[in-house]
Amino acid sequence: MTFAHVHLLVGYNKGTITAFQEMAAKLKETFPQAQDSEIHCGTVHTSQTCKGFSIVTWDHCIPNGDYPGWRQVENDQMEYYW
Predict the structure, then answer these.
(1) Is 79 a residue whose pLDDT tops 90?
(2) Is the pTM for the entire model greater than 0.85?
(3) What tens digit of pLDDT does each residue of 21-77 get?
(4) Is the CB of residue 62 less than 8 Å from the CB of residue 1?
(5) What is the DSSP string of 17-74?
(6) What is residue 79's DSSP assignment?
(7) How far apart are CA 63 and CA 65, in angstroms?
(8) Which of 10, 11, 23, 82 is most exposed, with minimal Cβ within 10 Å?
(9) CB-based burial of residue 5 (10 Å sphere; 0-12 exposed, 13-18 middle, 19+ buried)?
(10) What is the H or E stretch that residue 9 is in?
(11) What integer pLDDT is reported at residue 6 of this predicted model?
């Protein structure tokens, strides 16, 4: 097991509740143990590459392994802030 900060970014969606619900549903396709009450929504406000993107985040212990379609970065600081 490893502790993970899971981030899903979508460029310039409408920022509506429905849009964030769709992003949460996408996250749950890979991480079905994620609960709505644990998923955080926001907008990237500082970034060279993804400023203004919508973001959902989820922090949890997950099994070590490969998660196709997800980029894994160990002990790295992301270049964006939300």
Answers:
(1) no
(2) yes
(3) 999 999 999 999 999 999 999 999 999 999 999 999 999 999 999 999 999 888 778
(4) yes
(5) HHHHHHHHHHHHHH-TT--GGG-EEEE--B-SS-TT-EEEEEEEEE-SS--TT----S
(6) S
(7) 6
(8) 11
(9) exposed
(10) strand 2-10
(11) 96
**Helix, coil or strand: residue 5:** strand
What token pair was written down for 12?
A: 């310039």
H or E element in which residue 6 lies:
strand 2-10
Of residues 12 and 64, more confidence is placed in: 64
Which whole number is the average pLDDT over 5-18? 93
CA nearest neighbour of 56 among 75, 33, 37, 76:
37
DSSP for residue 81? B
